[in-house]
Write a structure and sequence with these properties.
- The structure is a homodimer of 176-residue chains.
- Chain A is mainly alpha-helical.
- Helix content of chain A is 61%, strand content 9%.
- Chain A has a two-stranded antiparallel sheet with strand order 1-2.
- In chain A, helix 2 crosses helix 3.
- Strand 3 of chain A pairs antiparallel with strand 3 of chain B, so a sheet runs across the interface.
- The first copy, chain A, binds a DNA duplex (28 and 28 nucleotides) through helix 3.
Chain lengths: 176, 176
Amino acid sequence: MDVRTICLGILTRADATGYEIKKRVEEGGYRHFVEASFGSIYPALDKLTKDGLVSVRAEVQEKKPNRKVYSITKAGRSAFIAALMGPLPQDCHRWPFAFAMKFADLLPEQRIAQMLDAYTAQTENTLTQLQQAGAKPQSRGEHFATGLGRAAYGAILDYLREHRVELEVQTAEAAE
Amino acid sequence: MDVRTICLGILTRADATGYEIKKRVEEGGYRHFVEASFGSIYPALDKLTKDGLVSVRAEVQEKKPNRKVYSITKAGRSAFIAALMGPLPQDCHRWPFAFAMKFADLLPEQRIAQMLDAYTAQTENTLTQLQQAGAKPQSRGEHFATGLGRAAYGAILDYLREHRVELEVQTAEAAE
DNA sequence: GTTTGCATGTAAACGGTTACATGATTGG
DNA sequence: CCAATCATGTAACCGTTTACATGCAAAC
């Protein structure tokens, strides 16, 4: 999903500034499915404006920086739906942790333990976030998506807890 | 994981040509954890050679194109281990399908059904591949990694099967 | 008094994908 | 006869990340 489409999607739910879009991507239930940084969001919003898919209004604020609030247009809504109707980009699960585990035999025991600990902690965080997101009222689609995430990360966590033992018994020999 | 590190990893197991590295990434149990294309592998091997992390020998073949077989050097092995000892790049799970599902309310019923079908089929394939990979003899680390993949994709598949019903009951209203 | 939050933006660098070029051999 | 396999490589393009620039207000 390119950043333009992500912006459009978020704007179908509510008007927002670039800053707010970033926040929603990070905090909302989107965090685990897509990514977007300021450096990509602002140019994306520019382009969407030029293409007539969103409109802007400037809001002057006191004691806070001025902001540009974006709204999706009818054309934008159509374009977003068209994007979801067409073929979706392939999922991309880049999993350096799993890749690294394949080479456990090359690494010292303690490094393996440390990686397992870190990854377990990280997965626990992710799960907690998804559980919190799941607690909030959501549309059917949102509920389904968070559930999917919980299912995946829950299974990963279970696997880590049950199977780390297999790796920790005398994995390492030497690390050069 | 950048492509250079992926190449090094694969070369720790056996010498290979660029072509073979690509194949192993695709077929071997790496497929679901990392990605690499020719356009990135060949330049990566060039750079690794310049840096002394791999060495090349040209092999002239009859009835087949000549090939360049790469071997990892001691320095390369150290560099690979160093990469695994340092902080790993963040996992990146880009999941356009899950993102799209969040907007199920904007899409017609049949499109949702179609997406669910396609995604289920795709996940089934992935699982089958991981099960086949798991059947082959593997090192402890490899076994752990394939098991992790199976756990994750298995959970996703179960979830899809059990919960698609929630989305299919009158999701759609209109699609503009 | 320092960090965090609010808020927008740019420019350079990076890594990677896609498409193209080439060409013999084998299998269906 | 056509597609796939083997095999290497280049170049243009792409989207994104990272780092930088700016600056006030509130909270700790």
